[in-house]
Prior knowledge:
Structural class: alpha+beta
Helix content: 25-40%
Radius of gyration: 24 Å
Largest sheet: 8 strands, mixed
Bound molecules: zinc ion
Shape: globular
Amino acid sequence: MRLTFRRLPAFAVLLAGFLVFDVSSAAGRPQALPPASGPKTTAEATAYAATSTYADVMAFIRELQKLSPLIRVETLCTTAEGRAVPLLVIGKPLPQDPLALRADKRIAVYLQANIHAGEVEGKEASLMLARNILLDPKLPYLDRIVLLIAPIFNADGNEKMNADNRRGQNGPEKAGVRHNGQNLDLNRDAMKQESPEIQGLVRNVLVRWDPILLVDCHTTDGSFHEEPVTYSWPLCPDGDPAIITYMRDRMLPAVAATLDKKYHTMSVPYGDPRDFRDMDKGWQTFGHQPRFVTNYIGLRNRLAILDENYNYADFRTRVLGCYNFLESILDYCELHADELARLAVDADQRTIQRGLAPRETDTFGLDIDVRALPEKVTIHGYEIEVTPREGGGPFPEIKRTDRKRTYVLPYFADFYAKRTVRLPYAYLIPLFDDDIAAKLRGHGLAVEKLTEAATLEVEAFRLKDVKAAERLYQGHRTNQVKGEYAVEKREFPRGTLVVRMAQPLSNLAAYLLEPESDDGLLVWNAFDRYIAREWGRGVETYPVYKLYTAQNLPADRLD
Ligand SMILES: [Zn+2]
């Protein structure tokens, strides 16, 4: 039987007292409905006409706190416009701090919504989920999971609600904007970290709580299909491959199967047609760069799921689809908590071991390209009509017909490196620059300073050309560089910054510091003043050097 979005929790049904179950499902499986008591989200209270304001979200959370002792509110960050972004911590018992989880069999799972504040169903669904867990006498999931929820990550964007935002979206009446209070796209900020939201995410969620899994909730654009839920895994091939293959080949297929069987909700890997005029060319995911939050998490040896709910489904269908997806994910995490914890520990161990004595075969991938995965994807789509736009214009008009059609397509989601360079034992940065040190430490990296000068044989990258982008992007003219590697002996002064690769985040360190990285600090202009000095013509050597052989380096850790 073709998958359909057959049955949704009947949220209108209200019975006094306890959690109730809908036993009318075709599959005969009970499904939790919201309790009769407890606050309603704005979406529920308006029959899915409206979405929550910041004040609505905070009032909902305060109501929950009056009803349960198992929820605490921490501050993820304070936004540019001065709003405190709430981070809900839900646990049984509530851990006082992350240290309390050290000898605990529970894993931390982090759900994030509203990073793009026009894409709002995750905000509603995550609040409903928090309520339905806390007010269920059985307290589902909490034996194995400490739940962290940021329901309104981009609070400033949320408050710029307008009917004109995301006009193609099928409800609610008004939604927020994509950017934050600094006009930045937070889902492009994971590497450069210029927003309080992303800085807060790293400091107060990732470093503080070390969640095994992050789920980032969005809404799609562009493609047409029946599936209300689409998803992706970390895509960057410079992350630990075990994380990528586990998520792609085991975890997400299992989550999607649960979503179908238990929650009767269709899903498909996220994508767009490569060519609307010729669908057979395939289905293509988004980019591999770790500026995208879910890809960034993969570089940190942790698991991440991108949730993209289908733009053209009505708001209720999107909220409930997202809700069911989140429950399917928690179902999986509860059942596989030990396996997930082991996966993360093993990835950290591998990364540290590699850094202690890197071999020639330990490499960093460059010139990343995408190819089709061995498995095709099945999309329950529609026939598409493409017509030239009236009066010309570069893009044709793309129209969805009502004729349903199932496409079985190659899925372009296998990113791979066409070229590699060796990974070092350490990166050395002979700069007296607190901003660079702070940028690195902001990611949670261990950074040291040489306590005495050292003469070392290193590899330098001599820049030949730096091209700044003509178009501004996220407030930057991003750099593209050309150069040559050269071995040299060099004295590094006392105070030189040292980033050793024997640390769990060294895949991230390499992505930030490799000269030819496509999303590193050099791209994002952090080294501009050093590579093209005042009065100077041309460009100089990139001030980050690679030390290949393990060395005893007298250095102190910055903290
Ligand atoms: Zn989005």
